[in-house]
């Protein structure tokens, strides 16, 4: 087939950078798309099957079908230009079907006494032709050399022919052509930052267990919240000798929220500043509140919100030994990542002076950064007036509506669910904590009793805990608390002064999964 090109460059309509000039390795499984690639099959007219003689411009080429291949055996083909001219000439293989966007490795062996060139002819779905330079090759000094390159097929291209041609006075001999599809390994996705979540997280948390939250819980629709309950009001405490806790949820309300899928977590028993109370009071407030929720209404509790947002290393250690796996502050400095201190979770409060636009910007920040935003609410009232720790139903509804519209970009989670996605999670195993403590007998000369040293040892199969679980030990009490009016067992620790006689001590230990181990022992004081 004679081509009427006057020059290749004048007719190039698309120029594509194909690849580098290199020597490929071809596996046995690869399929060579070029038929009769080594000229071994002869057509009825005496020429090599599936090959054509091409030239364009003004050359007078001489084509030869040779009986000697590059290895000495087999066949090859040559083209000679006997004079200087414009244009060029080549042996061209039948065009082959290709896939747009796919990569193909091309190679052929050649020997020449002048510089030569390799081009690709692309045919698109409408039959339009375009051309691209593959490689410019120096003279091989009449010794066999291999040329190769990788072609990436442009959009809408369905066929390709690769030409190795000569355009100067001289001879080019070619043999052993190959065009194989390169099965490229898919580019892996960009590495995921191990500090970030798969998508932004938002938590709706509510502090104190206020009745107004229970009354407006339907505003959340299908979204689930974390309810931080401090338990004295739940039990009907009579602070200030009146019904001062009438605005708080009772046990039935708390159970109802839990049964509806909301998380119930600890906010201590009486809402003290935990950094300002004794070690015994820390036990009463932290272990005690968790035990209240576990025993009285059967709710597993994994985390705590610090009253007033106050904590220190002693408080954190107490939470860890009580089996809590995380705690929330009211520090708004940042959003949480997988590596945030799980006992110092950042949170942002939605108060009476917080606009919906501001909360929306926080949610957008969580979405864009793939971090975890914890929102803190207190009262939900139609009018907040001068009350700071308050939000209106309108504000809450707007936040819920926006989160719902963004559900493909953000996950609304409870605090427990967020903690479970963080790094270095403790592992809760099925075993129940075991407490070892023998009965104790001491003798004293005092008529009021004696201080007793004891140290219950707790063992458990949970792993990844920062500290060993502690035993929370109490004795019976019949005296109401003068502040709350409630009767809680008295917390006892080593060194407590026991009265003359025999006292039953009950110790509990609670693991990260809320499983309670119990041990009862006696302390007998004689004189």
UniProtKB/TrEMBL annotation:
GO terms assigned for molecular function: hydrolase activity, acting on carbon-nitrogen (but not peptide) bonds
Stretches assigned to the NodB homology domain: 200-413
Classification via PROSITE patterns: NODB (PS51677)
Domain of life: Bacteria
Keyword Cytoplasm: no
InterPro entries associated with the record: Galactose-bd-like_sf, Glyco_hydro/deAcase_b/a-brl, NODB_dom, Polysacch_Deacetylase
Keywords linked to the UniProt accession: Signal
GO BP term, pick one: carbohydrate metabolic process
PANTHER family for this protein: POLY-BETA-1,6-N-ACETYL-D-GLUCOSAMINE N-DEACETYLASE, PTHR34216
The name this protein goes by in its record: NodB homology domain-containing protein
Source organism: Candidatus Zambryskibacteria bacterium RIFCSPHIGHO2_02_FULL_43_14
